[in-house]
Amino acid sequence: MITSSVLEVESLTLTAASGEVLVDKVGFSLAAGESLGLVGESGSGKSLTLRAILGLLPRGVEQTGGTIRSKAVSAMVFQDPRGSLDPLCPVVKQVTEVVYYRQKTSLRAARSIALELLMRLGLPDSLATKDRYPSQLSGGQCQRVVIALALACKPGILLCDEPTTALDVTVQRQIIDTITNLQQELGFAMVFVTHNLAIAANLCARLAVMKQGRIVEYGATPALLQHPAEAYTQMLIDSVLPLPELEGGGI
Fold first, then answer.
1. How far is residue 158's CA from residue 74's CA, in Å, rounded to a whole number?
2. In the sheet where 206-211 sits, what is the strand order?
3. Which of 20, 37, 64, 188 lies at 20 to 30 Å from 222 by C-alpha?
4. pTM, full prediction
5. How does DSSP classify residue 61?
6. Mind giving me the DSSP string for 18-36?
7. Residues 6+ apart with CB under 8 A from 200
8. What is the sign of the dihedral through the CA atoms of 59, 60, 62 and 68?
């Protein structure tokens, strides 16, 4: 493992109450400011790995082996933005509360920080005068609020659990660009979970391919994409649909 890493996962094993091994001896390291993509089909153990790092394993799943060593605060962006937000609490108030408790500021300062963060993430300026409930925002706006909640914790490690899955492709692009710009500006490390290899390749310098709870291939993104060693990795690459070539050579 890299000695300067902010996160080290070694031989992580997660087991269901039934005895089924869900994540089997998974290991990787993450340096400060680095991005790692965990890619694979649904059910491969990607999200469970993230939850183990955060210490939020679902009921009936426990860590039965391995170690997780972190030198930085972690925060998570969940897959379902509306399900991650309190539907009965306006969004500025939600972000303000996180800032207040995690950054130990006054309520006035916390609200100011929350609004600045939301504006930076592209939420409308009108939130400063009229707060809104999650149901009054679009899916892309709700995802930005969820990112704001995570960043309000001032994390050194951002864990992203398929945050673009439920969004249309235009909003996906916007969210990816937002995360990329914020990482360059704030310098956090990131583990990005997705089943979409194209998204991971855009965001991450290294990729870990997971299948049935194991990492089957691991390496620098360009090398892994150009020379995959595993048939399963090649299958994921082939599943990224190219744009069709139209008559006349134009699109």
1. 6
2. 74-77, 157-161, 189-194, 35-39, 206-211, 214-220
3. 188
4. 0.89
5. E
6. TS-EEEEEEEEEEETT-EE
7. 37, 38, 39, 192, 194, 207, 221
8. negative
Domains of the chain as residue ranges with CATH:
1-72+188-239 (3.40.50.300)
Residues in the chain: 251
Q: Where are the alpha helices (DSSP H) in 104-249?
A: 107-120, 139-151, 169-186, 197-203, 221-226, 231-238
**Rounded Cα gap, residues 118 and 112, in angstroms:** 10
pLDDT digits 0-9 by tens, 110-165: 999 999 999 988 899 999 999 999 999 998 899 999 999 999 999 999 999 988 87
Q: Which two tokens stand for residue 2?
A: 């890299």
Q: What is the token pair recorded at 90?
A: 């306006």
DSSP H helices, 68-134, are 81-84, 91-103, 107-120
DSSP structural state of residue 212: T
Say if CB 152 and CB 128 are below 8 A apart: no
Pairing type for strands 189-194 and 35-39 reads parallel
Alpha-carbon torsion (126, 127, 130, 133), positive or negative:
positive
Beta strand 21-31 with 5-16: parallel, antiparallel or unpaired?
A: antiparallel
For 156-192, the pLDDT digits (tens) are 999 999 888 777 888 888 888 888 999 999 999 999 9
CA of 90: how far to CAs of 93, 123, 175, in Å? 5, 13, 21
